[in-house]
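Format notes (please read before filing issues)

Several people have asked whether sequences and structure tokens are stored in separate files. They are not. Every record keeps both together, in the order shown below: the sequence lines, then the token lines. Line labels are part of the format and must not be stripped during preprocessing.
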Amino acid sequence: MNSLISRITINQDICHGKPTIRGLRYPVENILELLASGMSIEELLEDYPDLEREDFLACLEYASKLVHVKSIHRIAS
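Then the structure lines:
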């Protein structure tokens, strides 16, 4: 079984190299913001018919992997 995270791609020529879904112009960060705002996957599927349920789950898995760090340091502003 392939990991859902393989649906997340990075290409310097698409969305300035930000992680996107399957090389499409849907940045992971935008999808995560929509999910965080309270939209359900079902609502997003209606709004984005070219995406699949697994794409949204892949975004969540990607975010989960990003927060698995040993420590977080405050950056002076």
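For reference, the curators noted about this record: Strands lie at 8-9, 20-21. Residues 4-66 form a domain with the Arc Repressor Mutant, subunit A fold (CATH 1.10.10.10).
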